[in-house]
Amino acid sequence: MFDSQSRTIPSGFDDEGLFGNLEARRYLGARIDARAGRSVLLHGPSGCGKSLLALLYAKAFVCLDPDTRPCGRCRACKMCDDGIHPNVQIFEHDGEDEGFARKINAKARAESLGEGRFVTVLDRPELISRRGLELLRDRMGRLSPKVIFICCT
Predict the structure, then answer these.
(1) pLDDT, tens only, 66-93
(2) How far apart, in whole angstroms, are the C-alpha atoms of residue 121 and residue 22?
């Protein structure tokens, strides 16, 4: 279960609280530094840090500081830390594939028209049926650069 409320999001990609995942941390940090956020798949065994890395990447993507992302000080970072940022949505499979995919697509479509950036974190997308994945893939292929998906499997 993905619970952002019970986790402390690390302050940066070099944070000592993030053990391992060095290659993934470097890659994601480079994407943020280049202002070239993109959708990613984080895969690994339970407890390896995928969720924390996903939340850190999401936080960095919506951070308002032009120099250091995530800064940990701006309103967007603080809202991410509190698990209440409206442009960072965490979706867990609810058993109803097509409705689940349509809900995610509708949110991503609406937010991609807005002024800010939007992050969709999908926890355990491997549970989604083939039809649900086809609906999501269709949306992911037509995303605004302001919208990213982070899938944690």
Answers:
(1) 888 888 899 999 999 898 998 898 888 7
(2) 21
